[in-house]
Amino acid sequence: WKRREKSLARGGGPRGGAGGGQARGEGVGMARLNEKLARDANSSKVTTVVATPGQGPDRPQEVSYSDIKVIGNGSFGVVYQARLADSGELVAIKKVLQDKRFKNRELQIMRKLDHCNIVRLRYFFYSSGEKKDEVYLNLVLDYVPETVYRVARHFTKAKQTIPVIYVKVYMYQLFRSLAYIHSQGVCHRDIKPQNLLVDPDTAVLKLCDFGSAKQLVRGEPNVSYICSRYYRAPELIFGATDYTSNIDIWSAGCVLAELLLGQPIFPGDSGVDQLVEIIKVLGTPTREQIREMNPNYTEFKFPQIKAHPWIKVFKPRTPLEAISLCSRLLEYTPATRLSPLEACANSFFDELREPNARLPNGRDLPPLFNFSPVGK
What we know:
By secondary structure, the protein is an alpha+beta fold. Helix content is 33%, strand content 17%. α5 packs antiparallel against α7 and α7 packs antiparallel against α11. The N terminus is likely disordered. Keywords: ATP-binding, Kinase, Nucleotide-binding, Serine/threonine-protein kinase, Transferase.
């Protein structure tokens, strides 16, 4: 490699190409190549940090990793992929700016969660930023290669519907993860296909991104502007601040409907537009339903629209059990939505309980029934 680098530095092209800067484009090519070489060298260098394990006692230890590359970013910060030096396993490192005045809620929640359908916090550590006094929190998490969003988009682009067995396997695992976090008093508050990680070979699903999650306490208000728009429960659109974990159930119903339809079921451009899309399917909520969502809204007048029959919302060959399950999740009254465990027991998932059920690739189904007393 060093010999090749020297030859490149002298102007010899890689793989015996023409040398010597004969065209201006070659200079640009060399600059790009040197940039890439520097980047590659940087990504393969081993970084060692003192990190605290995600679970268990606070016993900081040295953790080394390499092959660092950016795989995502957003308003929250940056996500990197890296390889742990000791095991060779890939991990995701989520790096967020830490406000020193507050404890990081995502870290606190992730440290108490331990479930096969939730992305695991392996370690966390702090690093300094470029500016003085800037501190970053780094969460070292399981790396899972795909998302339900990308898997569904793959089928949509190919003008195909996602095989129903995948819909069952993914949704069942999502409900399992919700049963667990809700049993811990945690509401995710941002359930959407992009936050459902999946391994395309094993079909194991892991819920990720607890950046909006919160321990809900009855009587304590919560912000209503939470959750990504297409998946927002109607009580949030109505501005409720005393909502419950049932907002996650509504979002899960939206994900199920989207997998069956091949597109979002309620694609609103704004809060009001979102409500219009919901009313077009569920009909105008009754005064009682509005009171259950947010008592402050009962005097509002809405145009009277009849509910659209659920069977007409979906394509002709959609399984009736799937449509029925959707209708039990997407209810205006939060308390009448199915609980996550009730959803797991729904007849739509009966195929998963058959002893010879397999994935389309011939593999066994992922572990689905290894419950423990606390819903793990």
